[in-house]
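FORM 7B: Structural annotation worksheet

SECTION A. Query
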Amino acid sequence: MQANEAPRVRAVLADDERLMREQLRARLNEVWPDLEIVAEAKNGLEAVELVRQHRPDLVFLDIRMPGLTGVDAARQIAQMGGGDDVPEGEDWQVPEIVFITAYDQYAVEAFEQGVADYVLKPAERERLAVTVQRIKKRLALRDGGTAVDAHDDGHDPDDSKAAAPLQQLLHKLSSQINPGSTPKYLQWIQATVGQAIQMIPVEDVLFFISDEKYTRVQTARVEALIRKPIKELVDELDPALFWQVHRSTLVNARAIDGITRDFRGRQMVGVKGLTEKLEVSRSYTHLFKGM
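SECTION B. Predicted structure
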Protein backbone atom coordinates (compact mmCIF):
# COMPACT_ATOMS: atom_id res chain seq x y z
CA MET A 1 0.00 0.00 0.00
CA GLN A 2 1.35 3.43 -0.97
CA ALA A 3 2.08 5.85 1.88
CA ASN A 4 -0.66 8.22 0.75
CA GLU A 5 -3.29 5.52 0.23
CA ALA A 6 -6.05 5.08 2.77
CA PRO A 7 -6.33 1.58 4.29
CA ARG A 8 -9.00 -0.62 2.73
CA VAL A 9 -12.29 -0.99 4.54
CA ARG A 10 -12.58 -4.55 5.88
CA ALA A 11 -15.85 -6.43 6.24
CA VAL A 12 -17.31 -9.68 7.57
CA LEU A 13 -20.31 -11.13 5.72
CA ALA A 14 -22.81 -13.40 7.52
CA ASP A 15 -25.73 -15.23 5.90
CA ASP A 16 -26.84 -18.84 6.33
CA GLU A 17 -27.56 -19.14 2.58
CA ARG A 18 -24.40 -19.70 0.55
CA LEU A 19 -25.94 -18.41 -2.68
CA MET A 20 -26.97 -15.18 -0.96
CA ARG A 21 -23.44 -14.69 0.35
CA GLU A 22 -22.01 -15.24 -3.13
CA GLN A 23 -24.54 -12.88 -4.70
CA LEU A 24 -23.92 -10.11 -2.19
CA ARG A 25 -20.16 -10.52 -2.48
CA ALA A 26 -20.43 -10.19 -6.29
CA ARG A 27 -22.65 -7.10 -6.04
CA LEU A 28 -20.35 -5.50 -3.49
CA ASN A 29 -17.40 -6.12 -5.77
CA GLU A 30 -19.24 -4.15 -8.48
CA VAL A 31 -20.23 -1.12 -6.38
CA TRP A 32 -17.34 -1.11 -3.89
CA PRO A 33 -14.32 -2.83 -5.49
CA ASP A 34 -11.96 -1.55 -2.77
CA LEU A 35 -13.94 -3.29 0.00
CA GLU A 36 -12.10 -6.29 1.45
CA ILE A 37 -14.34 -9.09 2.71
CA VAL A 38 -12.03 -10.78 5.20
CA ALA A 39 -14.35 -13.60 6.27
CA GLU A 40 -17.78 -15.16 5.76
CA ALA A 41 -20.04 -16.75 8.38
CA LYS A 42 -22.98 -19.14 8.00
CA ASN A 43 -24.62 -18.30 11.34
CA GLY A 44 -24.67 -15.71 14.10
CA LEU A 45 -22.22 -17.50 16.38
CA GLU A 46 -19.63 -17.70 13.61
CA ALA A 47 -20.22 -14.02 12.82
CA VAL A 48 -19.49 -12.94 16.40
CA GLU A 49 -16.32 -15.03 16.53
CA LEU A 50 -15.09 -13.79 13.14
CA VAL A 51 -15.68 -10.16 14.13
CA ARG A 52 -13.72 -10.77 17.34
CA GLN A 53 -10.94 -12.43 15.35
CA HIS A 54 -10.65 -10.03 12.39
CA ARG A 55 -11.87 -6.75 13.98
CA PRO A 56 -13.42 -5.42 10.74
CA ASP A 57 -14.79 -1.94 10.01
CA LEU A 58 -18.10 -3.29 8.77
CA VAL A 59 -20.28 -6.36 9.22
CA PHE A 60 -23.18 -7.55 7.07
CA LEU A 61 -25.63 -9.64 9.13
CA ASP A 62 -28.61 -11.61 7.88
CA ILE A 63 -31.41 -10.84 10.33
CA ARG A 64 -32.65 -14.45 10.44
CA MET A 65 -29.93 -17.05 11.02
CA PRO A 66 -29.98 -20.38 12.91
CA GLY A 67 -28.54 -20.62 16.42
CA LEU A 68 -28.06 -16.89 16.90
CA THR A 69 -30.05 -14.37 14.88
CA GLY A 70 -28.40 -11.42 13.20
CA VAL A 71 -30.01 -9.16 15.79
CA ASP A 72 -28.59 -11.18 18.68
CA ALA A 73 -25.20 -11.31 16.97
CA ALA A 74 -25.30 -7.51 16.53
CA ARG A 75 -26.08 -7.14 20.24
CA GLN A 76 -22.96 -9.12 21.14
CA ILE A 77 -20.83 -7.27 18.58
CA ALA A 78 -22.01 -3.92 19.96
CA GLN A 79 -20.48 -4.86 23.31
CA MET A 80 -17.03 -5.40 21.81
CA GLY A 81 -14.40 -2.72 21.52
CA GLY A 82 -12.55 -3.21 24.75
CA GLY A 83 -11.67 -5.63 27.52
CA ASP A 84 -10.79 -9.11 26.33
CA ASP A 85 -12.04 -8.44 22.80
CA VAL A 86 -9.22 -6.07 21.83
CA PRO A 87 -5.55 -6.57 22.72
CA GLU A 88 -4.09 -3.91 24.97
CA GLY A 89 -2.80 -0.90 23.06
CA GLU A 90 -4.98 -1.48 19.98
CA ASP A 91 -7.54 1.14 18.99
CA TRP A 92 -10.55 -0.55 17.42
CA GLN A 93 -14.11 0.66 17.15
CA VAL A 94 -17.24 -1.44 17.03
CA PRO A 95 -17.97 -2.05 13.34
CA GLU A 96 -20.78 -0.46 11.36
CA ILE A 97 -23.78 -2.81 11.10
CA VAL A 98 -25.67 -3.55 7.87
CA PHE A 99 -28.62 -5.93 8.14
CA ILE A 100 -29.47 -8.29 5.30
CA THR A 101 -33.19 -8.97 5.15
CA ALA A 102 -35.95 -10.20 2.87
CA TYR A 103 -38.52 -8.35 4.98
CA ASP A 104 -39.31 -4.72 4.22
CA GLN A 105 -40.59 -3.91 7.70
CA TYR A 106 -37.21 -4.70 9.27
CA ALA A 107 -35.39 -2.66 6.62
CA VAL A 108 -37.60 0.38 7.13
CA GLU A 109 -37.15 0.18 10.90
CA ALA A 110 -33.37 0.05 10.59
CA PHE A 111 -33.32 2.90 8.10
CA GLU A 112 -35.53 5.18 10.23
CA GLN A 113 -33.38 4.66 13.30
CA GLY A 114 -30.32 5.93 11.46
CA VAL A 115 -27.78 3.80 13.35
CA ALA A 116 -27.69 0.84 10.98
CA ASP A 117 -28.31 0.28 7.30
CA TYR A 118 -29.86 -2.56 5.37
CA VAL A 119 -29.67 -4.61 2.20
CA LEU A 120 -32.81 -6.25 0.82
CA LYS A 121 -32.59 -9.77 -0.60
CA PRO A 122 -31.76 -10.23 -3.39
CA ALA A 123 -29.26 -7.36 -3.38
CA GLU A 124 -29.90 -4.96 -6.25
CA ARG A 125 -26.99 -2.95 -7.59
CA GLU A 126 -28.71 0.46 -7.40
CA ARG A 127 -29.99 0.06 -3.84
CA LEU A 128 -26.70 -1.40 -2.66
CA ALA A 129 -24.84 1.59 -4.12
CA VAL A 130 -26.97 3.89 -1.92
CA THR A 131 -26.17 1.80 1.14
CA VAL A 132 -22.45 1.85 0.31
CA GLN A 133 -22.40 5.64 0.03
CA ARG A 134 -24.09 5.99 3.42
CA ILE A 135 -21.64 3.55 5.02
CA LYS A 136 -18.65 5.40 3.54
CA LYS A 137 -19.98 8.67 4.93
CA ARG A 138 -20.52 7.17 8.39
CA LEU A 139 -17.04 5.63 8.43
CA ALA A 140 -15.51 8.96 7.38
CA LEU A 141 -17.39 10.82 10.12
CA ARG A 142 -16.36 8.23 12.67
CA ASP A 143 -12.70 8.36 11.70
CA GLY A 144 -12.48 12.12 11.33
CA GLY A 145 -14.97 13.24 13.98
CA THR A 146 -16.68 16.61 13.82
CA ALA A 147 -14.59 19.72 14.27
CA VAL A 148 -15.65 22.33 16.82
CA ASP A 149 -15.21 25.97 15.94
CA ALA A 150 -12.46 27.51 18.04
CA HIS A 151 -14.66 30.54 18.73
CA ASP A 152 -17.62 28.68 20.17
CA ASP A 153 -18.20 27.27 23.65
CA GLY A 154 -17.57 23.64 22.73
CA HIS A 155 -21.16 22.77 21.87
CA ASP A 156 -21.74 21.00 18.60
CA PRO A 157 -24.64 22.62 16.72
CA ASP A 158 -25.97 19.16 15.88
CA ASP A 159 -25.80 17.91 19.46
CA SER A 160 -29.40 18.90 20.13
CA LYS A 161 -30.46 16.16 17.71
CA ALA A 162 -29.73 12.73 19.06
CA ALA A 163 -30.01 9.56 17.02
CA ALA A 164 -31.62 6.54 18.65
CA PRO A 165 -29.01 4.13 20.02
CA LEU A 166 -28.13 0.89 18.28
CA GLN A 167 -29.32 -1.11 21.30
CA GLN A 168 -32.74 0.53 21.02
CA LEU A 169 -32.97 -0.53 17.39
CA LEU A 170 -31.90 -4.08 18.24
CA HIS A 171 -34.60 -4.41 20.89
CA LYS A 172 -37.23 -3.26 18.39
CA LEU A 173 -36.02 -5.60 15.67
CA SER A 174 -35.96 -8.48 18.15
CA SER A 175 -39.59 -7.83 19.13
CA GLN A 176 -40.56 -7.79 15.44
CA ILE A 177 -38.87 -11.12 14.79
CA ASN A 178 -40.45 -12.62 17.95
CA PRO A 179 -43.75 -10.72 18.27
CA GLY A 180 -44.98 -12.93 21.11
CA SER A 181 -42.11 -11.99 23.43
CA THR A 182 -42.63 -8.69 25.24
CA PRO A 183 -39.43 -7.60 26.99
CA LYS A 184 -39.65 -7.01 30.75
CA TYR A 185 -37.18 -4.36 31.81
CA LEU A 186 -35.69 -3.85 35.25
CA GLN A 187 -37.75 -1.58 37.49
CA TRP A 188 -35.53 -1.66 40.58
CA ILE A 189 -31.80 -1.93 41.28
CA GLN A 190 -30.70 -3.73 44.44
CA ALA A 191 -27.45 -2.02 45.39
CA THR A 192 -25.00 -1.66 48.25
CA VAL A 193 -25.02 1.79 49.88
CA GLY A 194 -22.47 1.88 52.70
CA GLN A 195 -23.24 -1.15 54.86
CA ALA A 196 -26.87 -1.42 53.72
CA ILE A 197 -28.73 -2.89 50.76
CA GLN A 198 -31.04 -0.38 49.10
CA MET A 199 -33.73 -0.75 46.44
CA ILE A 200 -33.28 2.06 43.89
CA PRO A 201 -35.99 2.80 41.28
CA VAL A 202 -34.41 2.48 37.85
CA GLU A 203 -35.96 5.75 36.68
CA ASP A 204 -34.04 7.59 39.44
CA VAL A 205 -30.66 6.39 38.15
CA LEU A 206 -28.72 9.10 36.29
CA PHE A 207 -26.03 6.76 34.98
CA PHE A 208 -24.25 3.43 35.40
CA ILE A 209 -20.47 3.26 35.00
CA SER A 210 -18.32 0.15 35.39
CA ASP A 211 -14.77 -0.68 36.34
CA GLU A 212 -13.29 -4.18 36.35
CA LYS A 213 -15.26 -5.48 39.35
CA TYR A 214 -18.17 -3.18 40.13
CA THR A 215 -20.75 -0.99 38.45
CA ARG A 216 -21.42 2.37 40.04
CA VAL A 217 -25.09 3.37 40.23
CA GLN A 218 -25.49 7.16 40.46
CA THR A 219 -28.69 8.96 41.40
CA ALA A 220 -29.14 12.61 42.34
CA ARG A 221 -28.70 11.72 46.01
CA VAL A 222 -27.08 8.29 46.21
CA GLU A 223 -23.96 6.59 44.87
CA ALA A 224 -24.14 2.80 45.10
CA LEU A 225 -22.33 -0.29 43.81
CA ILE A 226 -23.56 -3.47 42.13
CA ARG A 227 -21.70 -6.45 40.66
CA LYS A 228 -23.72 -6.64 37.42
CA PRO A 229 -21.62 -5.60 34.36
CA ILE A 230 -22.74 -3.10 31.74
CA LYS A 231 -23.07 -5.77 29.04
CA GLU A 232 -25.81 -7.44 31.13
CA LEU A 233 -27.53 -4.18 32.07
CA VAL A 234 -27.78 -3.21 28.40
CA ASP A 235 -30.20 -6.08 27.77
CA GLU A 236 -32.12 -5.63 31.04
CA LEU A 237 -32.81 -1.88 30.88
CA ASP A 238 -35.27 -0.06 28.63
CA PRO A 239 -33.11 1.10 25.66
CA ALA A 240 -35.41 4.08 25.14
CA LEU A 241 -34.44 5.33 28.61
CA PHE A 242 -30.79 4.23 28.99
CA TRP A 243 -28.33 4.95 26.23
CA GLN A 244 -24.92 3.35 26.02
CA VAL A 245 -22.32 6.07 25.38
CA HIS A 246 -19.22 4.04 26.18
CA ARG A 247 -18.35 0.36 26.62
CA SER A 248 -18.48 0.98 30.37
CA THR A 249 -21.22 3.63 30.61
CA LEU A 250 -25.01 3.82 30.36
CA VAL A 251 -26.72 7.19 30.84
CA ASN A 252 -30.36 8.04 31.50
CA ALA A 253 -31.41 9.95 28.34
CA ARG A 254 -33.71 12.17 30.42
CA ALA A 255 -30.77 13.21 32.59
CA ILE A 256 -28.59 14.44 29.72
CA ASP A 257 -27.95 18.15 30.19
CA GLY A 258 -25.84 18.77 27.09
CA ILE A 259 -22.83 17.69 25.07
CA THR A 260 -19.47 19.45 25.03
CA ARG A 261 -15.98 18.63 23.79
CA ASP A 262 -12.88 18.57 25.93
CA PHE A 263 -9.44 19.84 24.93
CA ARG A 264 -8.74 16.51 23.18
CA GLY A 265 -11.88 16.80 21.06
CA ARG A 266 -13.76 14.02 22.86
CA GLN A 267 -17.51 14.34 23.29
CA MET A 268 -18.52 14.64 26.96
CA VAL A 269 -22.05 14.19 28.30
CA GLY A 270 -23.20 16.62 30.96
CA VAL A 271 -25.61 15.18 33.55
CA LYS A 272 -28.33 17.28 35.16
CA GLY A 273 -27.51 18.27 38.73
CA LEU A 274 -23.92 16.98 38.59
CA THR A 275 -20.61 18.57 37.63
CA GLU A 276 -19.22 15.20 36.51
CA LYS A 277 -19.10 14.59 32.76
CA LEU A 278 -19.20 11.22 31.01
CA GLU A 279 -16.94 10.42 28.05
CA VAL A 280 -18.56 9.30 24.79
CA SER A 281 -16.37 6.76 23.02
CA ARG A 282 -15.95 7.04 19.26
CA SER A 283 -18.18 4.03 18.63
CA TYR A 284 -21.13 5.94 20.12
CA THR A 285 -20.58 9.47 18.79
CA HIS A 286 -23.43 8.90 16.29
CA LEU A 287 -25.86 9.37 19.20
CA PHE A 288 -25.25 13.10 19.20
CA LYS A 289 -24.88 13.87 15.51
CA GLY A 290 -27.81 15.22 13.50
CA MET A 291 -28.81 12.50 11.08
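SECTION C. Observations
The longest strand covers residues 36-41. Residues 10-144 form a domain with the Rossmann fold fold (CATH 3.40.50.2300).

SECTION D. Sign-off
Analyst initials: ____
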